[in-house]
Every structure is written in structure tokens, then in C-alpha cells.
Amino acid sequence: MNQGLSSIMTIRFSSITAPLRTSLLPLVAALVLAGCASTAEVATNITAPAQFKEQSVNTDAAAAPVQAAGDWWRAFHDPSLDALVERAAASNTSIQQAAARLAQARALARTVDSDRSVQVGVGAGASRQAGLDRNQGNKPSTLLNAGASISYEVDLFGKLAGASNAATLDAQSRESLLQSARLLVQAETAQTYLSLRALDAERGLVREQVEAYGDTLRLTERRVRAGDLAELDMARVQTELSATESEAIALDRQRALLEHALAVLTGDIASNFELPSAEWSTALPNIPAGVPSTVLERRPDVIAAQKSVQAAQARVGVAQTAWFPSISLTGGGGSASPDLSDLFKWSARSWGIGALLSLPILDGGRREAGVQGASAQLDGALASYREQVLIAFREVEDQLASLRLLREQSAVQALAVASAQRATVLSDSRYRNGYVSQLDLLDARRSELRNRRQALQVKSAQYQATVGLIRALGGGWGVATAVGAL
């Protein structure tokens, strides 16, 4: 509160007689609230660390070049991915809806701001009446009029400016939400595409195993016909072959669903969309060590929540101005005449000006309720902002932890794959020479397939976590210009 204004009002108020003091109490309270109204920043009770916790255990020293907050997907060096993201940016319906909401918010901001301008209008009319004038009798008469009017509300206490500022901040929040929608669609497109490419690689691996089982089945059939093996051995191989073919079909189904999801993301009809299978050659960018937590200041959803807090704060000030008097200036001029030929003569002119001051004294608590409602809205916006910041930190830490652990898992899984492949080669050789049973060979092949598929899934998870981290950081990990303190 403005202490100077408060003390002045206390001194003056004490010199007024008791009855008059009671009648002027609402006006005095309004002026005191004027001293309390402030645009100071609202505390969010969030202390942001200088660095993410998971970065302290990240040992990567080099980083692939990544756009700070732009075409981040180009760091994966995949032309197909680039084309899909660009299609999604142009045709995705979620982005189009967010853009329409932004256009509505901007139009509303212009509407609210127009109340601060001079309002000018013109009008004309004609009427014919009888019996309404005592001196006129029952004789009908015609009255024609034409004129212009002008009005202006004097914004002494900032009511209109505050409402305009709040609407502008709402539009800025919508603009940030549009950017958030774009980033979300970009990330979903990239993750869906990378999942599809991972499935292509896994399908190729499973098909390779199907061919291997087919070769084993043909060899087993020859040995059964020669009497070297029992029919049970052939049934076991046939079982493995059929089970692996079933897994391959299941992967085909998953790929079809991902392809359809890509169609929706790019704004296309699933029946018309097709992405041919291709070798998975997408590059995996490295994450640099020491990414500062300040990059979260450029996250669009965090910026949107921040703008919502500022808009709610502005509306508290607008609600407080309801205690103040409103002053309106009006003016009008024109002419009126019973004959159209005389309507624009100087003798038919008319004009008027006026000023209106209004201050509600008793309103049943309406204004106080308005202030309380605006304050509650501010509290809700603050809580939403804090929640958004907390979620942002959690998402970054989740992805950093995932990348660190996936990197360790990938190294261990690579050893498991190498051992499983060696075991399969040895088992196949020993089986062909009669040193081990068919069950040993089948177990070795199952182990190899399982470990190679697990390695592909770990690799896919690394790509997903990388895209997730880029999205959590707001579209990259370069330091952007600070928008506001967390």
C-alpha cells in the first residue's frame, strides 16, 4: 500500500464529523485501495536450481549441434523426419485449433481496448404520430432527424487500461500455447516416426529369425526322413517357426497403427498415407553436460502460465477500480424537422453535451465479491504456474535420468547380444556335428533373438527420451533469452 496516501487519508478523515464520515466511508475505502493497487511481481515461492540434478552425473563432454529453439529435429539428420514434421506444422489440426484460439484472443483484446477510445456514431430517423401532443390534437405529424453522437469514458483510475492489459496478456498466453501446441506436435511426430523405424528394424530382425528357423526346419525334415531324428524334433522347430511368424505379424499390426497415427499428425487421411519401410539410419544427438535450468524459461507452456498470472493480477486491479467513481463525457449534434427539405437548415440544428459521474454507495457486497473473485482467480493462476514449473523440472529430470540409465543399459545389452550370437554359432555347429541336442540350439536362438530385440528396444527408448528431453527443454538445450524468472 502507498503509505503516504494512507497517512494523508487518515489525517483528513479524522477531521470529518461522524455522520458525514459514515456516508463517505465507501469513497475513502476506494481511495485507500487505489494506493494499495500495484503491478508488483507476485511471489511464486519457487527457487530454481542453477543446474539439473541429473546433469551432475552426466559425463558427456561433446554435443552434436542442435538448434537452440527452432528446427531441433534436423539434429537427427533424417530427411524423412524433416519432411513429416514440416507437413505436420502446415496441416496438423491441433495447431490449427490453437491458432484459431489465438486469433479469438487477439480479437477480444482489440475489442476490450476499443473501450478506451472515443466512441462516435451517426444516426437518422423518421416518425409519424398523432394524438401524443396536447397541442397537436389528432392531426398526424412527421418528424425527421439526423445527427451524430460522441462519448468518452475518462479512465482516471486505470479501469479500462487494466482490462485492456489483462486481455493483451491473455492473447500473449494464447500465443505461447500455440507455440506449445507446435512443439508438442513436432515431438509426437518425431517420436511416432522413430517408433515406426524401430519397428521396421525389429521386423527385419524377426523375419531374419523366421528364415533361420525355416532353414532349421528343412534340415530337421531331411534328418527325420533319414531316420536320424525323431518327429518330435521337427514338431519343436515347427512350433518355434510358427511362434516367431506370429510375432512378426504382431509387429506388422503395430507398424500399421503407427503409420495411421502419423497420418493424423500430418493432417492426412489414413487411407491415403503410406510410409515405406527403410533402413533406420537416424542420427542420435548427444546431450551436452551442464545444461542450465534457465532454459525452462523459454518453455511455451511455462510462459503461457506466467502470462496467465500477470493477466489475473491485472484483473485484481480492475476489480478494485469498481470502488472508484466513473466519469463519462457525452456530446451530440444534429438537426430535426418535420420536412425533409428543412432537415439540414441551420434553424433545425440541435446539440447537447453532458458529463456523468457515478459512484455506487451500497451494492450489497457486489464490488467486494468481485475483488475476492479476482483474487481467487489470481491464487489459482499462481498455483497453476507453480505446478507447470514443477512439471517442467520433473519432465527434464525424467528424461535426463532415462538417457543416463539407457546409455548404461545399452552398453550392457551390447555385451549380451555379442555373447548370445556367439552361443548361437557354437550351438549350431555342435548341433550339426551331433554334440548337442536340438533343444540346446533352439534355446540359443531364442536367447539371441530376445537379446537383439531388447537391444533394439533400448535404442528406440534412447531416441524417445532424446526427443522427450528436447521437448521438455522447450525445443532444444541452447540458452535462450530469458523471458521471466521462474
Description:
This protein is α+β, with helices and mostly antiparallel strands and 486 residues long. It has three domains: 36 residues, no CATH class; 365 residues, Outer membrane efflux proteins (OEP), CATH 1.20.1600; 71 residues, Outer membrane efflux proteins (OEP) (Single Sheet). Helix content is 59%, strand content 10%. The chain contains ten helices and four strands, in the order H-H-H-H-H-E-E-H-H-H-E-E-H-H. The protein has a four-stranded antiparallel sheet with strand order 1-2-3-4, with no helix packed on it. The longest helix has 67 residues. It is elongated and about 125 Å long. The N terminus and C terminus are likely disordered.
Q: How many strand elements? A: 4
Q: What is the CATH H-level superfamily of the largest domain? A: Outer membrane efflux proteins (OEP)
Please work out how many helical segments DSSP would assign.
10
CATH topology name of the largest domain: Outer membrane efflux proteins (OEP)
Protein name: Multidrug efflux system outer membrane protein
Family: Belongs to the outer membrane factor (OMF) (TC 1.B.17) family.
Main location: membrane
Signal peptide: 1-42
Q: Keywords, please?
A:
Outer membrane efflux proteins (OEP), alpha+beta, transmembrane, 3 domains, Multidrug efflux system outer membrane protein, 486 residues, lipoprotein, MdtP/NodT-like, OMP_efflux, four-stranded antiparallel beta sheet, 10% strand, disordered N terminus, elongated, 10 helices
